[in-house]
Amino acid sequence: MSQSGTDLLLDLDAADRGKLRLRLEGALREAIRSGRLPGGTHLPPTRALAQDLGISRGTVLQAYGQLVAEGWLSGKRGSGTVVAAPSNTGGSPVEQPEPLLVPWRFDLRPGFLDASSFPRLEWVRALRRALGEAPDDAFGYGNSQGQLALRTELASYLRRARGLEVAPRDLLVTAGFTQSLGLLARSLFAAGARRIAIEEPSWRFHRSILRAAGHELVPVDVDDHGAQVDQLETARDIGAVLLTPNRQHPTGVTLSADRRSRLLRWARGTGAIIIENDYDGEFRYDGHPIGSLQGLDPAVVAYAGTASKTLAPGVRLGWLTLPDSLRKPLIDAKRLTDWQTGGLDQLALAELLRTNAYDRHIRKMRLRYRRRRDTMVTTLAAANPRLRVSGASAGLNVLLPLPGGEVEADALAAAHAAGIGLGGVAADKYYETGRGAGLIIGFAAAPEHTFPSAVDALADVLASLDP
Amino acid sequence: MSQSGTDLLLDLDAADRGKLRLRLEGALREAIRSGRLPGGTHLPPTRALAQDLGISRGTVLQAYGQLVAEGWLSGKRGSGTVVAAPSNTGGSPVEQPEPLLVPWRFDLRPGFLDASSFPRLEWVRALRRALGEAPDDAFGYGNSQGQLALRTELASYLRRARGLEVAPRDLLVTAGFTQSLGLLARSLFAAGARRIAIEEPSWRFHRSILRAAGHELVPVDVDDHGAQVDQLETARDIGAVLLTPNRQHPTGVTLSADRRSRLLRWARGTGAIIIENDYDGEFRYDGHPIGSLQGLDPAVVAYAGTASKTLAPGVRLGWLTLPDSLRKPLIDAKRLTDWQTGGLDQLALAELLRTNAYDRHIRKMRLRYRRRRDTMVTTLAAANPRLRVSGASAGLNVLLPLPGGEVEADALAAAHAAGIGLGGVAADKYYETGRGAGLIIGFAAAPEHTFPSAVDALADVLASLDP
């Protein structure tokens, strides 16, 4: 859940601009090698590409120059830069070894998944089968709420796996949590809400979505028992609260049972809506699974789930339960936004759920993530006994609290210098009014073969850290 | 482009509610036969399903009862209605003949495509190949503007096929025209615009999208040369105008060359944005292709294209050119809306474009649609020489003007009684302030084997019409 934009070719994470030229070169080599940029293709002028990517023209000039020198590109005066024709003779670009494109040498960013874990084969198989059997209506202007077949499978899955109290008619299929939150924010605003409470700390991008819909934000502090519900009880005119009760992001804390009861009582009493962001609830390693808030009172909770952590963020599929008061406004808002979520993706996901391939994939990944979690916790503890990670019993990242923004900045700089990508509580502005610092270390992004070295590299960095 | 919602199972077009029970039965039989509702599945309670579908509980009760009688379902007191277990003995549900589910016996609705025309094989093949070669970043939080590989292919296609003046950096990939228009409407509003001009007549749903973003609408009349640009010249404070210059919907008129020049001059002079909705520009049968307005002045035109008519509406893919003044606001708005369009669909479309499978599919469909157009125009002219269709030189529907709303209502009622679905200018509220009537007859929706009988059935209805 970094805020950096990622292109097909380039991840232009601001923190990583020092390596931009190398990564641009790698991306271009990869595109030429794979045939996406065939021989003879005119590359964009350096000025245009620089503007497109938001980087300096000098960086692009250097990258082009390097690739011309390597024979991937040819530059002719007056005709711009062109992809060199492939050749089967020795020394041709296609036979040169080239680095694989990875955003970081060691990718420990939170919110990202190892792309090679995406179940490509299963997805294509599910889509092919679903397309063969799909009723004609699946290709048309479909139900804005989502295809009934998908909602039926999702309802069954969510009851079983997440303890929801939900029927197909209570679900809205969306293009992911970003859209779910935007639809909620606009529907709540249209219904008169003006103030939405949000955990402090929280992911900055979500605050942007709520503000873009016109809301004022009210911070709710988080302690070891989760969000401090008593702060909601004393606040005025709160239309909704956005929470991560299963596993607070980024602290990893679970909302306590006592707070859950108080929270629901508060919502029932004030008419406020609880937005339950269950972004990675499928992954719990220790203790019992935590049921959803929605299952306790569907009328006041809008539960939001996503395929971003179970399949891949790029799939862009999410789901939202419909509290009665927002049912019609939310479906109408979805229709006005994009009519419906992509029909082919809906078909494929319904088929993955129907055949239990979705469950099997999650079980497989849960085992892998649990092993990674164990490796990371053990290795980091051994490297520097003064450091203690938190939030490791579930989810896809841990938090390593640090005493202040300066220590965090030093640690991030050292990590970046070692080629490690990861998140920072202060650097990524998780706190808006309060203060806090720490490293957010994801263990789902690195490819399987680089994960052990990534953890070792981080351990080296942290070994010399003196908090 | 009807406003009816379509579920996976049911098209609940309001005009067709008389046949709801039969269609619900057909949908359930189809779902059971295809295995989407396996034996033992508990069907939703009648009350819940009725509410879900927005129909009466009595209709659902009757449908369930019929299917129990037929052996598809079994109803047990206290345990609800359950899908009967399949059996291979004679008389089992799976061996009974059952009607195919079609929304109408003869589907001549505008805006819909024959779903069997969707290139399923090519799509799956493209996706499989693209997934095999996709860089890891394609599965992550990608570039909100759209994958560079897709924008590169789209730019090349749009320059070649639609005369656009566009580079990859000038394109935004969206989830279809609905989203493109919503993003534009919100970005223009944020930039201070409050009044948007729109053709009269126009599709009502687009007016809803603009109004939902806060805009006041200013109607611009349409005559035989297209939108009457002089009305824009005398209007005040117009932030943008939404037009269908290639083929006005629903009249089928093309905006004249003279009007195009005046329109661009007006936009340059006032700073207004022209939203060019090129919804079916790929399909022209007579005369030369009409170039885009965008190609004449990219700085004042936001060109919007879609795969809804070339592939299928359910795919939910569109694209938008970025006038300089709206470039950053539009990309930011897209990011806040759903971060990016579904990555797998982007990969597949890029691959279809790269291999020219997209062009081949369009050429094939253009031939088919031209034949259908010829059949329709000839048959209807022979049936009733007093009727004259217009807008037949391009696109996927024709307009049959009628002298008033009452004649239209009579014609629609007769068509519906004959099992024909089609659109009505008055019935579908294409005019907001003005008056006009006529049938909007689509020739892309009917399956190939029913199209000739659909046209014959319509000819029978129209033969007795005395306008």
Chart the SSEs and their pairings.
The structure is a homodimer of 467-residue chains.
Chain A: H1 20-34, H2 46-53, H3 57-70, E1 73-76, E2 80-83, E3 106-107, H4 120-133, H5 148-162, E4 171-174, H6 177-190, E5 195-200, H7 204-212, E6 216-223, E7 226-227, H8 229-234, E8 240-243, H9 257-270, E9 273-277, E10 301-306, E11 318-321, H10 327-338, H11 343-354, H12 357-383, E12 397-401, H13 405-417, E13 420-421, E14 423-424, E15 438-442, H14 451-463
Parallel strand pairs in A: 3-13, 5-6, 5-8, 8-9, 9-10
Antiparallel strand pairs in A: 1-2, 4-11, 6-7, 10-11, 12-15, 14-15
Helix pairs in contact in A: 1-3, 2-3, 4-11, 5-11, 6-10, 12-14
